[in-house]
Amino acid sequence: MNRRKRMLNDLDQDIRDHIELETQDNIAHGMSPEEARYAALRKFGNVTRVQEETRAVWSSAWLEQLLQDIRLGLRTLPKSPGFTAVAILTLALGIGANTAIFSVINGVLLSPLPYKNPDQLVVIKEHDSLPNVMDIQRQTRAFSQGGGINVDKMDYIGASEPVQVRVGSVNAGFLETLGVQPMLGRIISPGEDVQGGPRLAMVSNYFWQNYLGSDPHAAGDTIQLGGNSYTVICVMPASFALPAEHADVFVSLVVRDPRAGAERDLHFMHTYWRLREGVTLAQAQADIAAIDRRLAEQYPADEKERKSQLVPLHEWLVGDVRSALLVLFGAVGLVLLIACANFANLLMMRAVAERQELVIRAALGAGRGRLIRKTLTESLLLSVFGGLAGLLFAKWGTSLLLALRPEELARLSGIHMDTRVLLFVLVVSVLTGVVFGMAPAWIAAGVDVAEALKESGRSTTASTMGHNIRKILVTSEVAVAVVLLVGAGLLIKGFSRLRSMNPGFNSANVMTMYLQLPTTRYREIPKQTQFRRELLTRLNSLPGVQAAMVTDIPLGGNYVGHRFVIDGRPPVAVGGEPKVQTLSVMGDYFHVMQIPLRVGRDFTPLDREKQPLVAVVNEEMVREFFPHESPIGARIRWAGDTGPPQWMTVIGVVADVRHSGLHQPTDPAVYTPFSQSDEGWRRFMTLAIRAPDTSPGLVEEVKKQIWSVDSLIPVSDVHAMDELIAVSLAQQRFNMLLLGLFAVLALILAAVGIYGAMAYAVNQRTHEIGIRTALGAQRRDVLRLVMKDGTKIALFGIASGIAGALALTRLMASLLFEVKPTDPATFAAVTILLALVALAACYIPARRAMRVDPMVALRYE
What we know:
Layout: H1 2-8, H2 13-28, H3 33-44, H4 47-76, H5 81-110, E1 121-128, H6 130-139, E2 143-157, E3 163-170, H7 174-178, E4 184-185, E5 200-203, H8 205-211, E6 222-225, E7 228-235, E8 249-252, H9 253-256, H10 258-262, E9 269-275, H11 281-298, H12 300-303, E10 310-312, H13 313-353, H14 355-363, H15 368-404, H16 419-445, H17 449-452, H18 461-499, E11 510-516, H19 525-540, E12 546-550, E13 560-566, E14 579-587, H20 589-592, E15 597-600, E16 614-618, H21 619-625, E17 635-638, E18 648-654, E19 669-673, E20 684-690, H22 696-709, E21 716-720, H23 721-728, H24 730-764, H25 766-774, H26 779-808, H27 824-850, H28 854-860
Parallel strand pairs: 3-8, 5-7, 14-19, 16-18
Antiparallel strand pairs: 1-9, 1-10, 2-3, 2-6, 2-9, 4-7, 5-8, 6-7, 11-20, 11-21, 12-14, 12-20, 13-14, 13-17, 15-18, 16-19, 17-18
Helix pairs in contact: 2-3, 3-4, 4-15, 5-13, 5-15, 5-16, 13-16, 13-18, 13-24, 15-16, 16-18, 18-24, 18-26, 18-27, 19-22, 24-26, 24-27, 25-28, 26-27
């Protein structure tokens, strides 16, 4: 009022009097005060002053009314605690689930990588050798920097007991490519990254804290790795982590292992490259393709089939999980739609319940816009409170997701609630309040005062429209629930089939642990063989223990491959020989792992050094290379061997073992005895121990036996074989559990929606039911009346959902294992389940309708 007076004092007194008179006259003719004031100002005021005064009048009135609506909503909502709690809880579940999944998507897919100019970083998908990496560095025009890394394990002497740490063997340029700035010290220079160079170590922040006591003067200290002394020259910052793996220490590959660093055909390095300014991915791909052709021509024995594929680093990191996360985000978005539909239904029911109040407001002069704003304000308040409650659910849900996460889920450290997540909650909450509150607000505002004041005013157009909208919303809820349940059913069926896959061995009562012999003390093959033989003798002497060893344990997801030649077959061009998985074993490995022997014989103690070389192959090897003949007696050798050919005779065929995962096809494999291997670099091995009791006590006893042979050998990666199977299924289990959880939540919300709609319909038709009963309708007639409406809604929803599921489940085909997206059994099961739930949700209100007393119902009106 004071503001308005100050503005009016600027007007000429005569014009002011005319304005006031005109305003009163306009009000007398039925205009609202605001409209009357505006018309008077337009007639008598100066144009500029009219605009200022009009803006002041309308803005002050609008703001005052908005604040009044908010205050009114905050006062009235607590007076309906049941409605308010259900509405907030419904939205909190939907918004919370969406926020939790969005937090994961934000951390994994949306947040930028923690490196300098991450959009310039690319990877070559195929592993490469150090000589090739160095050639690319010299020949490239597309990359400004590049380097490679291979992460494996080395024993570290300096802790309370020998331990294995993860060591990244790199070339000079690798860390510079990622833009790493050391916290302490410096990185290895190109002049030090040469054969015979000094043994230098760059340690991670974790290693510095846990093994070097966070010593600020650690640079210059000496540590023992793999039996050699390394000088620490650098400590990495705590924020640094490798893109796709973990390493505790970084050393020069060519200094650590000159032989491995010189082998061109030893493709075991991940390589990362930084594009030059202005160079596109397509230009870089053309550049690397030209280098591939030159290397293939220059080194056909090793690089004939070379074909490098460049991928942006971010895409490479998230490629395997992107589709799964997007499917889950779509699924949880459907859950939010169901929650919003229930929310809209609640608002419409409340609008009908408050209909008398709205009639009174309209009768006292409240316009349609005023009634819409009042109802919409309450909707926004509820959605905002639901969003705040959803944040609590999201925090709990994010913790649950991280607890269930598969190891393959990249960038776990980036998963947290940041500004982008909070903005997501705000936007979703406001949009939910506006979009799903608009229809109830519009219906609530459509009050015909004259009709409403009549006794028959219950059957207004707005009520009919609201009833129809509620039917549409409930039908949509059922349809969305069908889509989610079908998706979850397909994943569950696929996971069940995957879990029942035969891995090729018996995992029960098998424990595994990883060992690696240090180069300094076990460079010669006879020493390696002596250690293995003595260790197995000691372990097999333990009561009930059966022990053997293999280079790469099944389901480890990693193995060494070799090109090979079959005796008597037509010669193959150098570099074009086929590849097989190669594994060295010792002890009664196939018996310990219970891998079935199909044909021929197993290895025996006589298959040892200085005896004829022998090999056992798997069934896939036979199918691919001996499809119409017996492999027993055939001779094979490794391609590229120098000197006289070292032919191995195939003596047996064993069942296929799924080394790369239950969902991955098996590869051709060749098993050879450790004792006949001439590959001294195979100093790594995994013990496989079968015993009735694989408790921690057995683990300690095995460690004692290992250390009785060599007290400096560290033991790591102690796992039960069943655990490794569970880890290999982690991604599929993660997808199944989450989509299943969302489907159950959708089913519950849909059931609540059906029940609420039918309960409300029964309440609205109490008078009609009473009349029907008074006229002789039986209880079964009333039951049929109510169930008919509910069943019709459910059937329409189920039919629409099946159509939607047939279209949408195709998007998740990559997540399914041996199950078609249109699997009839799954669709049928979901249809029956949802029909039963819908019938149950309808039956409860129907039972109440059957108990309606006709006299009470008639008095109700």
